[in-house]
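Worked example

This section walks through a single chain of length 138. The input is the sequence exactly as stored; nothing has been trimmed or padded.
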Amino acid sequence: MVTGIGLVSALGTLENSWKKLLSGNCGIRKHQPFLEPEPQLLALIDTQPADLITLTRQVLADALQDANLTLPLPDCGIVIGSSRGFQANLELLLRGKKEEGRRKKEEGRGKKEEGRRKRKKEEGRRKKEEEEGRRKED
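Given that input, the structure is written out below as tokens.
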């Protein structure tokens, strides 16, 4: 038995998607990626980030609200489907391992950003030295 549904699609949330589908709207657009070198966005989900954890939480909250259920639900089953190929990540998230991986990933991004800043600073220093060298030659 389905008691609640949460949805995020090119047409919006569950209620918006349903209304738009009934009125004949479709989130599918023609896309020919080989005609132009730059990729094109097929659809955006308003201002919501396309982050697995954020979207999963949003959809779960929508499904619980749709079913008039509140947490905790110790004897509740859940079925999650995705067209984005996140099945392995969803399994890690449900096992509680995704947050740990996310923190490590964010730490790695911080280190990469620090490295970029150092390289940019070094590049700026070198350019400044080159300009000063040219001025001395003139």
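What to look for: The mean pLDDT is 77.
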